[in-house]
Write a structure and sequence with these properties.
227 residues, alpha/beta, six-stranded mixed beta sheet
Length: 227
């Protein structure tokens, strides 16, 4: 029986095998945040000559990439990226995701939006039939924290401030349990339209195109067909 750490290592290797054939010497690779991505970065270090640079979704990943000898560019310098690789806290069969357990949801969503393809890497514990078991992170401007919390309660959620945590953008996070997502994309748009919300951790309007899922029998691939 493989441990969760072993599954994370397995899917990180699968992600490396997936992206390397798609990289060119002038390629820019988008890199997300989290423990599974940390393993991907460590494996990527040996292949840093295969692409030009990375764009990172967090200060944590930026530091790890640079320590691995990989150049990191500001997103404002990058007009496009072929690939973005990141994990998820939950992902369903339609590749809608809940992200933000590590607090980098806003930058993750921004960097992912520039990439042609989002490759999500997870272990099988993150694959669910329906989103909602993991509390939804919502990044909020501190001034609006209680106003947003009241709106979320009206939607049936139970918000809780992530104590002692500030995002890389200088904001706070409400972790919201009890929400139900009949139409994830519509729900994401509604949350993002609440004044004071910087970004919610629901990734459905632009979800992943590919998911690599590590399980006891190996790594499986879920893929959406290009429209």
């Amino acid at each position: 029986m493989l441990t969760q750490d072993e599954l994370k290592q397995q899917v990180a290797q699968a992600a490396l095998d997936y992206v390397l054939p798609l990289l060119w010497p002038d390629s820019i690779l988008g890199v997300g945040t989290g423990s599974t991505v940390d393993r991907f970065i460590d494996l990527l270090a040996a292949h840093r000559q295969a692409f030009r640079a990375a764009v990172s979704s967090s200060e944590r990943s930026t530091q790890r990439l640079r320590a691995a000898g990989i150049a990191v560019l500001d997103l404002n310098e990058v007009p496009s990226m072929a690939l973005y690789v990141d994990g998820a806290d939950e992902i369903d069969g339609q590749l809608n995701m809940i992200k933000g357990g590590g607090g980098a949801l806003t930058r993750e969503k921004i960097v992912a939006s520039v990439a042609d393809r989002f490759v999500c890497i997870v272990d099988e514990s993150k694959l669910v039939e329906q989103l909602g078991g993991f509390p939804l992170p919502i990044e909020v401007i501190p001034l609006a924290r209680e106003a947003v919390a009241r709106e979320v309660r009206q939607l049936g959620g139970q918000p809780r401030l992530r104590e002692g945590f500030t995002t890389d953008n200088g904001n706070q996070i409400l972790d919201v349990s009890g929400l139900r997502y009949g139409d994830p994309a519509a729900f994401e748009a509604m949350l993002n339209n609440i004044p004071g919300v910087v970004c919610c951790g629901l990734f459905a309007i632009s979800g992943a195109q590919v998911a690599l899922v590590a399980g006891q029998q190996g790594v499986s691939r879920l893929e959406l067909q290009d429209e």
